[in-house]
Write a structure and sequence with these properties.
alpha/beta; binds adenosine-5'-triphosphate; binds magnesium ion; Alpha-Beta Plaits; six-stranded mixed sheet; Rossmann fold
């Protein structure tokens, strides 16, 4: 199945979702006209605060939520025109646990393979059980699995039909460090083998490490989309951290455009803008204040800083 003509795995235009009023709650515009193109072959991060609309978008891709308006193409197939093909092209690991407690992992994977019309000779149940580290739990009831194991089983279910696009909605929430690393290794492997990966996570370090490209949504609107490296480059804030030879107690030298601060560990940090201040200016002021430098380091902004800056300025607007 390689109908895909353009280089986009997902093309979304003008996507809107309004949840109807219910239980005394007013209607909710969860997506307010989102355009989003996700390149084939990428590991793509969809980030945003709680309630931003990430799961709504993903559940529309999965066919679990009906969109209010807009167009969704998955692997080149319009969801409304070619529902069967677009559904076959994507596998979704949902955020919510929706496992039947009376199924075993083996049973759940076999069942899912059947639902997706995978011919029995092509069932990959054992391979997937090994991939998600549940071979030894293959015949245990889902209700006896731990939370992390259940989440891994959801990942397995998303993979039975070998989709072109794999979507993971907070795959590592509540998963311990070892399993998290295993999960990311698996995801990387699947991506190297050609699968496009879309993920949401609130662990921004993970997104920074894993994703080639990132979109940030806030209040149902896309507020940024860029290659991860470009996104990180948007903030030109830097911090110079100096470990002095001897403890410094007094006020730090005043340098225009620089915020100096003594950290609890005794290091001196100077926050500045890369475009405005040179490191030399700071060093000169430090030497002039007769502070002797033992060690020197700089700190770059990380994805968390960028995320906070972008969502904050969108909220203020
Ligand atoms: N079934 C529903 N009925 C009514 N409102 C809903 C429903 N599902 C989600 N919402 C609302 O739509 C908005 C977007 O929710 P969504 O679950 O898409 O956010 P999210 O970005 O996935 O958040 P989180 O990071 O917490 O998972 C929220 O205001 C939420 O309350
Ligand atoms: Mg969500």
């Amino acid at each position: 199945m390689s109908h895909q003509s353009s280089a986009a795995a997902i093309e979304i235009t003008g996507l809107r979702k309004t949840y109807g009023a219910a239980n005394g709650q007013p209607p909710k515009d969860a997506l307010k006209g989102v355009d989003l193109t996700i390149p084939a072959g990428s590991i793509f991060g969809l980030l945003g605060p709680n309630g931003a609309g990430k799961s709504t978008l993903i559940n529309i891709l999965a066919g679990l939520v009906r969109k209010t308006a807009g167009q969704v193409r998955i692997w080149g197939f319009d969801q409304d025109v070619n529902p069967r093909q677009s559904r076959a092209a994507i596998g979704v690991m949902p955020q919510e646990l929706n496992l039947d407690p009376f199924f075993t992992p083996r049973g759940a994977l076999d069942m899912q393979s059947g639902l997706y019309g995978v011919p029995r000779s092509e069932w990959r149940t054992d391979e997937i059980l090994a991939l998600i580290g549940l071979s030894d739990k293959a015949d245990a009831y889902a209700r006896s699995l731990s939370g992390g194991m259940r989440r891994r089983l959801l990942l397995g279910k998303a993979l039975v039909h070998t989709p072109h696009v794999l979507v993971l909605d907070e795959p590592t929430a509540g998963v311990d460090i070892e399993l998290r690393q295993m999960l990311w290794r698996n995801v990387r492997k699947l991506n190297e083998d050609g699968m496009t990966i879309i993920l949401t996570t609130h662990y921004l370090e993970e997104a920074e490490e894993m994703c080639d490209e990132i979109a940030i949504i806030n209040h149902g609107e896309k507020i940024a989309q860029d290659k991860t490296a470009n996104l990180l480059g948007r903030l030109d804030a830097k911090t110079l951290v100096i470990t002095p030879e001897a403890p410094v107690s007094g006020p730090l030298p005043e340098i225009p455009g620089v915020q100096g601060q003594i950290r609890p560990d005794g290091t001196l940090c100077f926050a500045y803008r890369r475009g405005q201040i040179s490191v030399e200016t700071i060093l000169e002021a430090v030497r002039h204040a007769e502070i002797h430098i033992r060690e020197l380091a700089t700190e770059e902004p990380d994805l968390e800083d960028v995320f906070v800056a972008l969502t904050r300025s969108a909220d203020a607007a």
